[in-house]
Amino acid sequence: MKRHPFILIALSVVTTLAAVHTLGCGAARSARSLAADKVYVAPGEHDKYYGFLSGGQSGSVFVVGIPSGRLIREIPVFEPRAAYGYAMHESDPRRQELEATGGLWGDTHHPMLSEKNGVFDGRYLWINDLANGRLARIRLDYFEADRIIKIPNLQGAHGIAVVSPDTKYVVVNGEFEQPTDGLTTNPAPYTSVVAFVDPDSMVVKFQVRVNGNIDIADTSKDGRYAFSTVYNLEQGKDMGSMIQYDRDALAAIDIPAAEKAVAAGRGVVRNGVPILDPADNPGLLTLIPVPKNPHGVNATPDGRYVIASGKLSPTVTIIDAHSLKIVAEPEVGLGPLHTTFDGRGNAFTSLFLDSQVVKWNIDKAVAGASDYIVDRINVHYNIGHLQAVGGDSTHPNGDYLLALNKLSKDQYVPVGPDLPENQEIIDISGEKMKMLASFPTPPEPHDATFIAASVLKPIVKQVFTLARDAVATGKESVVRTAPHAVTINMTLIRSAYTPDSFEVREGDQVTLRVTNVETIRDMIHGFALPDHNLNIALPPGYTKTLTFDAGKPGVYWFYCTNFCSALHLEMRGRMVVQPKDSTVTLTDWHAGANVKGQVVAGVPSTGDKQ
Ligand code: CUA
Hints:
By secondary structure, this protein is mainly β. The chain contains 6 helices and 41 strands. Strand 1 (49-54) and strand 2 (60-66) form a beta hairpin. The chain is globular and about 90 Å long. It starts with a helix and ends in a 20-residue tail after the last strand. Bound molecules: dinuclear copper ion. Dinuclear copper ion (CUA) is lined by residues 495, 525, 560, 562-564, 568, 571. Dinuclear copper ion is lined by residues 495, 525, 560, 562-564, 568, 571.
């Protein structure tokens, strides 16, 4: 049979097209699976890194596994959080601390890890509250905020940094200017301060006055200088007057010079903190002119340079970190905000307006070579901070980079007008950057830092060490301490409260001291008391003491909020509030002395000893 040549040609075209199509599909699929392979962490396996993302106006820190992007935990800091029983009750010391220092919300921007010899040691993470001028310290053995301070003489605690290489201070920049003496009657231009906080005592040791809005912070790797970008040298009070000058500054504070001046009594003490004025202390402050309204500042891992990003200029300014001289000002793209590093001589700068990360070679840019741009990758969308794993230490890992994008637009299933934030994980191990994965977060991470799981794992505790005021098993009691005051000393263990009932009288002030006496990991018990605004979550070994009003007469069932065993639902007890005029005699309860309320033997759920 003779075939028409056209049919043959058509057939072969179809076959070729099909082959090309299959090939293309296969290539795309294999690119997908290669990317997936770089971020996939199988069930039961662990991520290589802990990522700490600031929670922005949620006032917390998000702990994210890298490379999986899985949200592992939230560490509440400046905001009460029922999920963790954090600062929930008005008598909770942490809540009182929050209220005394600025309120029950915060705006966290920059998570900073403690350093030893220039690398992260896993002791502490600091986080700022821009809104209320606060600094919090998180203990990484417990993943719990342990100190929160209000920084005096400062408003808008924005950029923070630890002084390398051994965390001599935590630097906090005051972004919002204030009248110099704090008085509204002062007609002099507003100024602000950079605060130097002792990392152990969390005491503000001294402050250095700087004119303008003090923005992002970093320090030289040798600990000599604290660097801050400063915009609005015009000292204007509205946007138009803030962008008059062509150049603003990178401020370099000579830390040893500041210490000497403080020791010599050259500071003016205000609110207990000596403030050094650069006008009276020559050499203390160097202002390096950089294109107007700069934003990020980042020291290179080798300590040679510090890089200020242009924001309103398409350039970054590379400054010698020792001589403080500008060595180059290469163009990188529109809206450069922050820079991070791979440890192989490359810098990665976020471009807010271009929605890109640009990779460029530092030595080539300094030498004035034309081919310093290595690669560009699109991000989605309008990136703010970016951070490569270890890029903020002396030993970058050079594998993953996180792009923290301000807008997600079309990237997720629509969830109403308020869209999630979009974080993107980029592979920076090769010459070209590769987009690997994205994950959404609640609003609104600004910045991130990472530490190897291998560093934190031996440090992180699974059970709290019993506090001095912990209630011991067998020492539970209900004691009337005053005519209208009752103290309950209670223990929790699967799956019972001891005592499991107590009686008080209307008008009583009830003090509840409660200890979770579990010694097994992940055995968290709750204590929720209806109609008393009382909700506590107690990890193993944890003790909490709260004081509350007995409330209206009635029977109130307290119950466990955290699933703990097959008898979790049965883990409850009663607070009986007798009327004021009740004739019932209330007797004190003591462990072993009273059958009523004796502990039901703990019911093991998993037997999972650590
Ligand atoms: Cu204890 Cu549920």
